[in-house]
Amino acid sequence: MNDDTIWQIKLAARIHDPAEKALVLLRDPAGHENGTSAALKRLLGLDQLPEHIDPDNDEALSRVIFRKGLPLEIYRQVQRADWWAAAADRPQWPMQEITVTTKNGKQKTLAVAPWAQVRWASQPVLTHPLTGEQYALPGGLSETDIDDIKQRSFEHFSSLLAKSGPQGNDSHDLRKTLLAFWRFGPELVETENFGKLGELWKLLPADTRIPDHSIWDHLDLTSAFAGAFAADPNGEAALLALSIGPAQGFIAAARKMDDLWAGSHLLSRLAWEAMKPVCEQFGPDAILFPRLRGIPQVDLWLRDKMELPNALFEDCDWMEGGTDANPLFSAALPNRFVAVVPANQAKGIAETVQNGVRKWLHELGEDVVSRLLKEAGYDVETTMTPYEQICKQLEGFPEVHWAAVPFSLVQPRNKEKQTDLDVSALSAAMAPFFGKEGAPCGFLDTPAWQALQKDIAWDDHTTFFAPNPGVLYPAVYDLAERVLAAAKATRTFDQREQKGWRCSLTGETEWLTTDRGQLATPPGSREDTLWTRIADKKPVWAKKGEHLGALPAIKRLWPTIFAEEVGKALAAGERGEQKSIDRFVVSTHTMALAHQLDQWLKKGSQTEGKLNTNKTDPVALPRRLMRDHRDNLMLGDAKRIPGMLEMARDADINAYDKAQRQVMLTLDVDKLEVYYALLMMDGDKMGAILSGDEKTAISYRESFHPQVKKGFDDHAATQTLIKQYGNQKRPISPNRHLAISGALNDFSQTVVRHVVEEEHLGRVIYAGGDDVLAMLPVADLLSTMRRLRYAYSGIDPEHEGGISQGLSLQKGFAALKRGKRLQVMRMMGRNATASCGAVIAHHQAPLSAVMRELRAAEKRAKNEGGRDAFSITVIKRSGGALFLTEKWGEPVDLLGEMRKFLADSEVSRRAVYNSLEWLHDLPDPKDKPEMLESLLAYQLDRQSEGNAKAQAPILAQRLAKLAAAQNKDGLNWLQNFLTVAEFLARETRAGGNA
């Protein structure tokens, strides 16, 4: 089929069900299919006969039967896509034969059984797809008027249609309309009458009987399948899994915070450049993982490349920010994707992706060389050596691995109904990966397939479930992942000759030079090189002594290049001149001082001439500190204090000592904080969750609406197959992947930034999917770790059902209050866990060493802690390190309370020191926990006064209980625990968040 027909079919699939279906089902006399969807089809001309059909020719008309307002050619494609999409998520509910009275008399017809007829507006319930927890919307929605809802929906989509500017059946306009519907269909503008529906609109269920996936998930998937069917001559779809890399090493090579941000952000951008060809050919709904709706970089593509009107994006956050707080600066995308594509084009698409992403990086590399040469004063056009180097060093990067598995491995024997499945070809393709030739393997050897592979009869006349190829999405996905892993394992390595001294950051490639003879010059002896000139003229691109290869050079200049790109994008939106974007990176020194600066500004103190900061440039401060004190007259001095200290340190030791004394006097502290914290969090077993981990899989019965469960259970009590189906854990499906991806997007792009930068004084360096990297003052570390862990699951035991600092976490959902707007988001649910590594280090410690310790801490949390754990490393400036690895829950809560207790002015610092002196002489706490508790209580009580004394026995009891519960040496664990708590509680950190 041509492009015109593809976009026509995808658009028909996208509107085959109305968005408001859940609110009008069983309430609208016209039926849900004759509401908004039918009106939009008429408006778009999708209900018109093709030009070659003669309306008076009955034979021709019989071949173009109108179904739901669609010509047969389109209807068949949409119907098949709808069947496949639905089969993966829900059964075919039984129909009963009933007699109805019409003006023509009594007639027999089929209708859904009464027990399965859910009037969702009267009983609005949402089910979390990963936990089965059900959330009943208080008050119900039955008072919402049907006609008003339909009119509001029609007006919403009509406005998108008007703004995207369709003209009849013009393919370009139909594509723009599809893109506008995909992106902004779920974004219902709140009005006086529909304000409470605004956020709920995004979560309206596709099927009121199984309210665990939204109508948008279903429409996305139906459109994806329909587009793939339409673009393949044989109407076949395939699952394409593709990844780029290497990821970890690319991000890890860093000398400063800006390098870490640049590595993660550039990798995210490369991921988008890889996804873009798929989006341009088949629409962004073709990509099932990650979900792309609402990603700022994708929005920019929609506006500038796909030419959607600027007016559609006016309320988007990325249109507002003129600093690096702009969401465009977030690394939002993982380095892999899964897409539904036409089977015959899978290989060509993968090759297009590979060529496109490498070409984009190569052009970026050439731009970097040009900028370096220009800044250093060389002739950009005639100095060819660095261009040759960057071309050679970027050859074959990034690595692109892919696998495609066609759904044609599953053949329905009943072509018309797409049922009675032959899986012999799929089984043969899977066998080599499981070593089971001639026997069922993988998903085909699971209880899920045993329950799903055959029709399930409801009674003698009706079928409850009839599987079609959509049911086998789990097997196709698993096979694609295994083929992709095999492709990665068998990749070849090309040796490249590198001469002379290597890049000072990675040590892997030559550093870029204008004269190859300079490559033989050792460090310390290099004069008048490209990089010595850059260090003099543009130190933000390279410090003295640094000589960088291709990839490190690209990373180092990426903040500058991307800031310019964002400036142009914002200017294009306003039709004005390019904006200058303030690119700020909070230094480790500034982050170490952030808590003390915050406390000082809260006091409303004055510098009173104690400081001379006029000669110092202002530095970037954490966002919350800037927000909370924006009207404080002393904020200007707060911005210059870290810079003043660094300038004095670079001058000489005496100047630094003097500056320190001045700052301590000004801030009214006895000692300046010199430690900061880095936090790295990662979701546990994400691969297993995406592959259908049983812990996060719910049964079919658990996903049913409460009303449906009763009728289902009545039949299941007497029918074994029905009962087996209900108890069967639901296998993975495209909509499960969409739900997971949507939750991870909302967590990383919205919730993480709120927790780190709005609730605390931290700075997000990277947040994409389930991965988080953030920098914090030590005082905020524990509360940030704990809050992020709660937010990941969407459950906060301390504030269940309530709002803390604008964010509510309940039953796997997050609600964030932004002014008058309440943003509701699905999180990963109580069964999904995350582990966290944290490092506390001196601000002058080499970043590469700190990052190594951070990765080791995260690994300890997952391995030694057994996942769902945290691990803290304290790197002492004086030498040595402290380590604490524990589970979430009581240990982190107790650590926070011990920190508070020890930081109290009524508690002596000897409390921990004295306890440690006699601790090693005690018996194992497993044998005599009461002895440990008694001695701890005595020591803590003895070293405290006033109100603090009352806490001593309670803390001692909890400490002794945890020590006794340790699998290994409980006393050693307690020593580490108390030492870390004491370090966190030192006077420079007193008063921070627990």
UniProtKB/TrEMBL annotation:
One Pfam family named in its UniProt record: Cas10-Cmr2_palm2
Entry keywords, A to Z: Antiviral defense, Nucleotide-binding
Organism superkingdom: Bacteria
Coiled-coil region(s): none
GGDEF domain sequence ranges: 674-875
Nucleotide-binding among keywords: yes
Keyword Nucleotide-binding: yes
NCBIfam families linked to this entry: cas_TM1794_Cmr2 (TIGR02577)
Name of the featured protein: CRISPR-associated protein
Organism of origin: Ferrovum myxofaciens
